[in-house]
């Protein structure tokens, strides 16, 4: 009885099939069109490009002959030194500012907030220049600071990094469950001791991925040093690439400097992704 | 000095969170070696009361004396006072970044300034007491909830406290793990530890407590030996509560008018059911 009534619809339609293409087929066709457009654009760009000139201009690594040593042993080395110095300064100041931001004492909180807003709100380049040219005038003791450019960079970029790291570390501290501090205090620990032994170690575990990301950003920001006028010994990657390319009237050295940056930033990015994945699993 | 005979003496304790008055005048005492169980519906203020005893919550008014020291005195060294008071939390609150053994030694070393060997010896002793000496080198996350709570008890015991506070120690556990923790607590009571226990485990309260305190609406409604409060409650509110807890499948929903009164008296708190409003209090680590 019931079997005869099932296909009785005049067009033999089944529910969910409105005729024409199924959603899956439609999706497939759209996807193929997208691929085709993409491949087409790449082919057109490849055909239109002036390959001989491109490779002469940008991949002419012969222009770097005799300079590879300087690229790695001076420029890349200095970039790393500038980064690590600024990162260390930023981490220490950032932790202090984060703690001030969470302090019970209102003046500390205000100071921390003003610090963060200023150093996050101003361009890093401006701060660097400010420290290099204004501070020596304002405070004569900074006229010839020990460490020269290294000192200026460590402080200038360090303060900028500190503002960002302070907010990251603060978020990490706040992400530690309140019960941890309560348990520590119940055991008779003072607030400071509880922070040092219990809360901050857990907070850093939480913020290692974003702090590593901050290291990558700082590595790139170290290129701003080139605005300070550095000597040959203090040269870093961007300044190096730029000055050789002017000297040789060829942009290839800039490409080489860029590749040197990627040697560091790509593995670091990989590390960040691994750390994040590990943390997601632990949660 | 009669006050010194009481390990805990609470006088006219009030606590408000904003406009919400959670404790409305509590008076009670705990004597040395006594086990007091505090029972009552959620939101009745029992956890807040417990947290006032080691000043995790600051009383709005009233005095809290522990071993004769007035914890509400603003000039008291609260860290020194807390060394005498062990606290076990519903959520265990073990330090996840430290191994079990280090969870037990860190406060001994940093607070009591014990040497490493001494701290480790005390820690192992207390781990043995809770039956977990083989877990010394595990991390808390590798343990079951029941094991974590026993480690938390051992952590508190390692400080040689005069008084142990338990804030619903079995409420976050799977039913089959509750027994392990209660057994440890019963042993502790037999050894003469002074204990103040907020709990929903009526069997534990009946068997172990010297006195049961029933709280509702921020006041102590009734207290006395378990044979009286649990087996033969005098107040209507206690009777309703116990009927609901002991026989949850036969609760008269919307039936008797007294049930409605109980619900009405609590209705302003039911927005945050299983947790006392105290836990939302400070907000973040900057709380106190």
TrEMBL record, chain A:
Subcellular location: Cell membrane
Membrane-topology descriptor: Multi-pass membrane protein
Gene3D superfamilies named among the record's database cross-references: MetI-like (1.10.3720.10)
Xref: InterPro entries: AA_ABC_transptr_permease_3TM (IPR010065), ArtM/GltK/GlnP/TcyL/YhdX-like (IPR043429), MetI-like (IPR000515), MetI-like_sf (IPR035906)
Transmembrane segments: 32-49, 80-100, 121-143, 149-173, 194-212, 254-273
CDD domains on file: TM_PBP2
Disordered as annotated region, ranges: 1-23
Domain ABC transmembrane type-1 as annotated: residue spans: 76-272
Main location class: membrane
Keyword list, A-Z: Amino-acid transport, Cell membrane, Membrane, Transmembrane, Transmembrane helix, Transport
Name of the molecule in the record: Amino acid ABC transporter permease
Organism name: Actinomadura rudentiformis
């Amino acid at each position: 009885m019931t079997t005869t009534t099932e296909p009785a619809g005049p067009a033999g339609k089944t529910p969910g099939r409105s005729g024409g293409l199924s959603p899956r087929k439609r999706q497939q066709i759209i996807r193929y069109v997208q691929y085709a457009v993409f491949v087409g654009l790449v082919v057109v760009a490849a055909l239109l490009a002036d390959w001989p000139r491109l490779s002469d201009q940008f991949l002419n690594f012969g222009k770097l002959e005799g300079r590879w040593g300087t690229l790695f042993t001076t420029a890349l080395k200095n970039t790393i030194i500038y980064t690590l110095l600024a990162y260390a300064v930023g981490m220490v100041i950032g932790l202090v500012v984060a703690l001030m931001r969470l302090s019970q004492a209102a003046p500390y909180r205000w100071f921390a907030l003003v610090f963060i807003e200023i150093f996050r709100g101003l361009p890093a380049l401006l701060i660097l220049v400010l420290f290099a040219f204004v501070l020596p005038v304002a405070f004569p003791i900074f006229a010839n600071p020990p460490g020269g450019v290294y000192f200026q960079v460590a402080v200038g970029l360090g303060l900028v990094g500190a503002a960002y790291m302070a907010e990251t570390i603060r978020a990490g501290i706040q992400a530690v469950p309140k019960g941890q501090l309560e348990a520590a205090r119940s055991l008779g620990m003072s607030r400071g001791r509880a922070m040092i032994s219990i809360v901050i170690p857990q907070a850093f575990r939480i913020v290692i991925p974003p702090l590593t990301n901050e290291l990558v950003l700082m590595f790139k920001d170290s290129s701003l040093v080139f605005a300070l006028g550095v000597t040959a010994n203090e040269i870093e990657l961007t300044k190096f690439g730029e000055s050789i390319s002017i000297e040789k009237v060829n942009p290839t050295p800039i490409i080489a400097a860029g590749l040197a940056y990627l040697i560091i930033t790509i593995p670091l990015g990989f590390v960040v992704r691994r750390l994040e994945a590990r943390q997601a699993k632990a949660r | 000095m009669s006050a010194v005979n009481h390990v805990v003496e609470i006088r006219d304790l009030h606590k408000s969170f904003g406009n919400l008055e959670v404790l409305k005048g509590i008076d009670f005492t705990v004597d040395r070696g006594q086990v007091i169980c505090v029972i009552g519906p959620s939101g009745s203020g029992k956890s807040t009361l417990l947290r006032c005893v080691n000043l995790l919550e600051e009383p709005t008014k009233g005095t809290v004396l522990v071993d004769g020291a007035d914890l509400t005195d603003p000039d008291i060294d609260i860290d020194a006072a807390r060394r005498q008071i062990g606290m076990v939390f519903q959520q265990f609150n073990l330090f996840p970044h430290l191994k079990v053994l280090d969870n037990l030694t860190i406060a001994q070393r940093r607070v009591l300034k014990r040497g490493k060997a001494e701290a480790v010896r005390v820690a192992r002793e207390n781990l043995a007491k809770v039956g977990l000496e083989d877990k010394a080198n595990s991390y808390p996350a590798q343990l079951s909830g029941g094991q974590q709570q026993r480690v938390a008890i051992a952590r508190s015991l390692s400080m040689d406290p005069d008084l142990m506070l338990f804030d619903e120690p079995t409420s976050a556990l799977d039913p089959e793990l509750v027994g392990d923790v209660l057994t440890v607590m019963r042993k502790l009571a037999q050894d003469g530890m002074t204990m103040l226990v907020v709990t929903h485990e009526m069997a534990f309260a009946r068997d172990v407590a010297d006195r049961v305190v029933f709280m509702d609406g921020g006041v102590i409604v009734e207290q006395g030996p378990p044979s009286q409060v649990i087996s033969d409650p005098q107040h209507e509110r206690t009777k309703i509560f116990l009927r609901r807890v002991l026989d949850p499948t036969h609760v008269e929903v919307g039936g008797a008018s007294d049930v409605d009164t109980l619900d009405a008296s609590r209705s302003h708190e039911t927005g945050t059911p299983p947790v006392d409003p105290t836990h939302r209090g400070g907000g973040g680590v900057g709380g106190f």
